Amino acid sequence: MLNVLTGFVEELREAGIPVSMVETIDAAEALRHVDLGDRAALRASLGATLVKNARHFEAFEVAFEVYFGLRPRHADDPEAAEAARTADAALVGAAGGGGSGGELDDDSLADALFRALADQDDALLQAVVRRAVEQLAGMEPGRPVGGTYYLYRVLRRLDVDGMLDRLLAELTAERALSPLEERLLREEIELRLERFRDELRSEIRRRLVSDRGPAAVARTLRRPLVEDADLVHATRAELAEVERIVHPLARKLGTRLAQRRRQGRTGRLDVRRTIRRSLSSGGVPVDPRFRRPRPSKPELFVLADVSGSVATFARFTMQLVYAISHQFSRVRSFAFIDALDEVTDYFGAGADFEQALNRVSAEAAVVWLDGHSDYGNAFGQFSELYVEALTPRSTVLVTGDARSNYHDPNLPAFSSIAAAARSLFWLNPEASRYWDTGDSIMGAYAPYCDGVYEVRNLRQLAGFVEQVALPTHRRVRRPA
């Protein structure tokens, strides 16, 4: 059991769920006090000790089903053999006789499934699931194919998509239903079909685990956590989930920043006060004194590329920054494609962020010629119109992929921005292996930056914003 638990914890960590050694020990201790045959209690105990964030529970449950799911009983087990014979007899009866040699054709299996769903016969449903996977999935030992492929094969062969109308016709044949009753019945049938799909997934997963082991199967089922989803290539569902957690994440980040500011008590050594205190101990500085630091809130200037390729990343960068804007003394935002325009007023107090983004698209003068990214022209405009607003307290944050469509990078303008600000950081949502390929000119701008970061997900973005809000001493830039 300890080996299974250790493998389970390793899978949680691979999935991105933070699990410490102490929490692993707590989970092992919890297992001493629960019935291991009670899967609900086992799941609750492990979830309570290993999961700290509700967003991580879906990934936890996938891993739990792989490592602690029921395994197919061995064919030599007398009880398993007797149960299989009983289920097969019921299955053949529901299918109307079936084929020869104990095999059932697709239509017979579909008829048995129809009967199980119509009568809500759980035992028959389990028998249909087991036989459907055996006959229709085409599973082969050692074959490196994911469970989704086998699931698709079974559902297609049984025509599960057409089962809804067939069941609806069967259950409404005796009497006419009102529109409300028909809708409720349809929803009930959809729930039954979804339960069949869940049972099918579980059976396929059990057989895969039995064949390949839990670690290999968990690897194929692993999905990134929402905070680790690639913001540039995320699906619509992933982006909706990211949108849902941005504000709670911002509140948490803002609270942590404020706390760290309050707790930053130790400053530089105060030599004069230390020597004065040492007189009472014969000149030995046993009680060093420090100057209390006065942490300042930096000014933040955000220059965001809002062209199509990185518009989603720019959206979440600005949304997170404005959600914790109280941690900065001032935030000014600029959007650009091949021209640059200030959009700070669009995100004023009480502004709806969605409407503000729509205003950026509709009203901001971010297109100059052809609407393709031109970083050199955008930096030239900022240097000419806004560089005087930068002070030694200003941090400039550039977000974009540095793909400038082979235009002039205008390094003198970018250099003047870097020289006027306290620090300049560049966040690039593109994988670093693609930098300086094609029309990317990331390498030309990098020497003028205090840091160039690959930031592809919300977790990395939040970590970087925390770094900007609590700045360190400025580094010396030495352009190559």
Give descriptors for this structure.
single chain, 480 residues, alpha/beta, six-stranded mixed beta sheet, 6 strands, 7% strand
Q: Would you give an account of this structure?
A:
With 480 residues, this protein is α/β, with parallel strands linked by helices. 53% of the residues lie in helices and 7% in strands. The chain is built from 19 helices and six strands. The protein has a six-stranded mixed beta sheet, sandwiched between helices. Strand 5, helix 18 (442-445) and strand 6 form a beta-alpha-beta unit. The chain is globular and about 95 Å long. It starts with a helix and ends in an 11-residue tail after the last helix.
Topology:
Elements lengths: L1 H13 L6 H11 L7 H12 L6 H12 L9 H17 L11 H14 L2 H15 L10 H12 L4 H9 L7 H34 L1 H8 L14 H28 L7 H8 L20 E7 L5 H13 L6 E7 L3 E3 L10 H11 L11 H11 L8 E6 L11 H10 L2 E6 L13 H4 L5 E4 L3 H12 L11
Parallel strand pairs: 1-2, 1-4, 4-5, 5-6
Antiparallel strand pairs: 2-3
The Rg value, from CA coordinates, equals 31 Å
Q: Note the run of SSEs as H and E.
A: HHHHHHHHHHHHHEHEEHHEHEHEH
How helix-rich are the residues, as a percent range?
Answer: 40-55%
Strand content: 5-15%
Number of strands: 6
Count the DSSP helices.
19
Strand adjacency order, main sheet: 3-2-1-4-5-6
Biggest β-sheet strands, sense, barrel = 6 strands, mixed
Distance between the termini: 57 Å
Average pLDDT rating:
81
Unreliable residue runs? none
Question: Given the helix and strand composition, which structural class is it?
Answer: alpha/beta
What sort of overall outline do the alpha carbons produce when their principal axes are compared? Answer: globular
